[in-house]
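Field guide to reading this record: the first block holds the primary sequence, the second block holds the structure written as discrete tokens, and the final block holds curator observations. Each block starts with its own label. This record concerns Serineacetyltransferase, catalogued under organism Sorangium cellulosum.

BLOCK 1 — SEQUENCE
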Amino acid sequence: MRLIAADVRQKATWCYGSDPLPTILKTLATDGTAAMVLYRFTQAARAHRMPVLEMVLNKATNLAGGCVIGRGADFGPGFVLIHSNGVVINGNVRGGSNVLIEHQVTIGADRRQTPVLGSDLFIGAGAKIVGGVTVGDGARIGANAVVVHDVAPNTTVVGIPAKPVQRREDRAARPAADGTNTSQS
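BLOCK 2 — STRUCTURE
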């Protein structure tokens, strides 16, 4: 339940800028949230070795959210499907915390090699991440980008194949000129 709460709070903050109870309730009714919750229940069934329930929940994720998330896919807290329609995630994918995914994203294998995703990522609509690549912490994958090579931390990539267009400093460690923390930008 803690993972579900972390996921929904992260989505509420992304969508509405805060996470008080009324906003959490509104977030529960948004596109993609049902798929996020069902994915976490699927993970729990897997952890408790309940393969039939795991399979049923996985199929329910597909029906409720219009997405396919492999039963073995593993993401940390703050896993957010901003829009779930058309999302396909291979069952061997490993992802960190605070991974935000737009619609029509594919994160898949190539010759049995699957991506490893860091934390604090944003993956834009229609992006494809394929093969044994590593996407570093804080990276941003642009809409419709096709990632077939590693992405350095705090780097934005766009295009086909994806190429770096911007590299950011570690924003958590760098205060803004006005003294505020810029880690949320």
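BLOCK 3 — OBSERVATIONS
The longest strand covers residues 163-167.
The chain has one domain: 1-165.
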